[in-house]
Amino acid sequence: MNIIDFIFPKRCLECGKEGKYICEGCLAKVGRGGISKDHISIFRYEGVIRKAIIALKYKFSTEIANELAETCVKHLGSGFHVPASSVLAPVPLHWYRQNLRGFNQSEEVGKLIAKQMGWKFIPNLLIKKKPTKSQVELKGADRRKNLRRAFSLNANYQTLDSNCIVFDDVYTTGSTLKEAIKVLRVAGAQKVWGLTIAR
Question: Domain range holding 34?
Fold first, then answer.
């Protein structure tokens, strides 16, 4: 135990038990997210996973990011087989929002997952070229309209000839992933999957 853990011990974000931010007991109570066409969500957006995502999103912690990544890799299971040569690209934030927040939570966790899975990680493969409203504020058709043509391929990557995984923290209606996946398919990606921590 290091001095920081001694002074400020890690506690489960759900039950308060010391040791980890995501304890095994609380994790066991979280449902699995499920698999749909070319997309997988590892967990349901509930319990300790929901609290960890919120804590990471609004007050970045390297330790929470590490635990989320380790938990995701452990629970990917048999439903998500992609070639080891695949590229993981996080869903980008617009530069203004990223400057305000100071980090992109999908990039931080995605980098750790890619490393553990042996995938290539390209944090700037996609660019968010226009600011958009928070998807939480919108519903249905407005969500789709809000994100239409919001993403583009980084000019440093003219074409793609590999399998790609678009990674985001939470899947709600799928509008964000669908727009990002569309850009990569047009750029020539062989196959594109969507991967999120929760839905």
Answer: 11-198
